[in-house]
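A reminder from the course coordinator: this example appears on the midterm review sheet, so study it carefully.

Given structure:
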């Protein structure tokens, strides 16, 4: 049996991330409700693209970098320390009444994915 190509081009990593995000919300909700009275909080931390050696190599070409960064409203990649600080806040007493939250640390991508004219 021969498989046909998908009806549209897609980025496999993007597709995997989309499935993970869509699966994390119901799982987070179930855990948050089940364990809230035991003092256990459950939240989903959803980072956007992070400045890593792999992405840096991808963005080496200025034209390729511009094509990707235009979709990030903040115009840049996150630093790992920014994601770490979000995780630390969620784990701290400062967020003691926060549970069943999807915490987006994505530079605005999920709110306003833009395509240049």
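Designed residues:
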């Amino acid at each position: 049996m021969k498989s046909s190509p998908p009806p549209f081009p897609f980025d496999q990593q993007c597709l995997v991330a989309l499935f993970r995000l869509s699966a994390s919300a119901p799982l987070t909700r179930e855990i948050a409700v089940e364990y809230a009275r035991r003092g256990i909080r459950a939240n989903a931390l959803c980072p956007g693209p992070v400045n890593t050696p792999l992405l840096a190599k991808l963005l080496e070409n200025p034209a390729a970098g511009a094509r990707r960064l235009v979709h990030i409203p903040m115009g840049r990649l996150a630093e790992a320390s920014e994601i770490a600080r979000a995780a630390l806040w969620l784990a701290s007493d400062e967020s003691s009444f926060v549970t069943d939250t999807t915490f987006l640390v994505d530079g605005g991508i999920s709110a306003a994915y833009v395509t240049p004219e």
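Strands lie at 43-47, 101-105. Confidence is low (pLDDT under 50) at residues 4-10.
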